[in-house]
Amino acid sequence: MKTKITIITFFLFSVTNIFAQTKNVTVSGIIKDENNKTALPFVNVVLKTESNNTFVTGTITKDDGRFSIPNIKSGNYTIEVSMMGYKTKTQPLFIGNLSDFIDVATIEISENTNTLEEVTVTSKQNNISNKMDKKTFSVADNVAQSGGSVLQTMQNLPGITVQDGKVQLRGNDKITVLIDGKQTGLTGFGNQSGLDNIPASAIEKIEIINNPSAKYDANGNAGIINIIYKKNKKEGFNGKVGYTNGFGALWVRKENLPTIRKQYQLTPKVNPSISLNFKKNKINAFFQGDYLYTETLNKNEFTTRTYNNGEIINQQVKRNRNTHFVTTKAGIDWSINDNDLLTISGLFGTEKIIDNGDQPFFNQDLSQRKRLWQFLEDELKTTVMATALFQHKFQEAGHLYNIGLNYTFHREDEKYFFDNILPTSSGKDSFKLLSDEQVLDLNFDYVKPLKYGKIETGIKFRNRIIPTNMQFFPGQNSPLDASAGGEATYKELIPAVYGNYVFENKKIEAEIGLRVEYVGLQYDVNPNHPTYKSDGYNYTQPFPNVRLAYKINDANKISLFFNRRVDRPNEVDIRIFPKYDDAEIIKVGNPALRPQFTNSLELGYKKTWESGSFYSALYHRFANGTITRISSTIPNSNLIYAVFQNADKSFNTGLEIVLTQDITKWYSMNFNLNTYQNKIDGFTVSNKYPIVNSLFIDESKIVSGNAKWNNTFKIPKMFDAQLTAIYLAPDIIPQGKIASRFSLDFGIKKAIQKSKGEIFVNATNILNSMIVRKDIQGKNFNYTSSDYNETQVVRFGYSYKF
Prior knowledge:
By secondary structure, this protein is mainly β. It folds into two domains: 25-109, Immunoglobulins (Immunoglobulin-like, Sandwich); 245-475 and 489-531 and 539-801, TonB-dependent receptor, beta-barrel domain (Maltoporin, Chain A, Beta Barrel).
């Protein structure tokens, strides 16, 4: 009995929540006379349940004989068509989960001399459960992380972990991040950046797509995260204003090594926001503005480095960061007529980062300081995005096409100054990087609803160019390599075409798609560069996706997914210019880097009941040419060079289990367990910078995972509270391991002013237990480190809707 209880307890605490995505299905068609094939107006169309013939909802046809019934939930129905002078006609109708629109095409009715009684039409709104390939999360529901950044909000979401400022899905950081369905300079094209500086107050919801269909770009083998900005469409003038304040680094977790400047304490967090909307007649205008100012102890890592010759170095990397982030988004929706909509919008973001840091190097017993490296990083990022979208709707509901044009300009202006203080001399070094990224996207998408699914097809064209210029200014005894500077230009051309077919009946769901992409990439390097030369690649590749599902009954469903995707090296991955991660670790790109192609399989099961749901997925990914950083040293130097390389094969196999349950009217909880094995086969590479250095990397393998437990409380007098526990198991990183981590977050909010206002307070990492510990095994060296950076933050705020 004890064993059974232990197993049951472990199971319950090994699963977490899936937030159900709901959507409304619209049923449409046209009614015609059977004899003369003319369209019939004012025909009664009634929807009834198949099992007991109970009336659900209904409508009447328009002048052109067409009808549309919105807000229908999944199930088995019959359509009953009736009109004075015609025979009543019924036919079965199945409504599933895969399409927002169902077109029953043409229904023909024949004349009858009998007179039919009038039908009274009413409506009732229902919801549909989400597909198993997408999960949607409302940012407003995440009370424990209110007032923070998008990155901080994601830490509480099922299946997501955050490591070194990067988001991972199921232990993999190869993710494509979208904003409103599009890639932008704010979050990077093909990579992820800036998530820690986008205020969560600007965001409506976050979508996680583990198995993207063919209509999405093929980049990002772990999946897609789509960040959706707030946008209101209520009639008249309305909006929302908010203000959040907070403090982090509430006390010193570990004292500095001797002789360096103080680390940040009681760091302020300020986030005012405003959202405005005006809708009248055919015009809907919107504006969203957010400002985020933070001071952060961004890094406070203590490292012990041991070399094969017996030398031991103790060091600290302390980084005090100031960030100013402004983002505004504005636009207008113009309903030209009932069928045509034109949306024009623009987004502007500016991010100013100032880093002041210290890195002392001591001997084993801290009796002698060998070196002190003090740095100032001044970085300004500017993003401008302009979007035009035209949508045409045909007469049938859901039958439409979109034409979109998107232009992005992203400038990275970075200056780096540091003092290199040695026992007998001091030097002042600096470098400057300027990068201007321009991206033009043009796409056409077409959707045609069917009676049992839909057809999607489209084309996309991307042209991307990134000229960069790096200038080095070395001082006395400088490790800077002035000859490695200069200019380089990244050019990328990607046309793509896709098709996707969706079918669904009472028992079977099928989604089959194919995307074909051509990629032409050229990286032009300054011909005087001492190591790297111009390089590039091109390919034409198919990227199929398949989803097959069997509905055992209304509450149980099994799905099988297959996906082929690619991870193309981003510009920063092949950027030839060395960049100092710290005084003795230098990160360098590699123009010879090539894409990694990944195939993934997933078997999923979902069960739903009135008060909750259970979801499980068994997945396996295998990649060729895995992209990773490889660190090495060269003779007579303590500098560590971390260079991007293509490893051999890698594998990611795991199980995700998700449970959500309403326990009582005032308490609900969700558990999430994600356990996986990461494995990278052994391989040999040659790091070319600063000199050719060949090395063999042993096979690395570990079983890891994470567990999250979200608890939500509905407290009397309009209080809502959330308590979240997060556990991250040990995991592998390039050439090493990262230890387990744990945190506990809490938040509470209260509706005031007749629910128009809201106040909240929350705290992250209450127990101050989140410490990042690493163990790295390099060639001729190894090191262990513990990062006591700022993770404990208290925030409070107020918002008001009008």
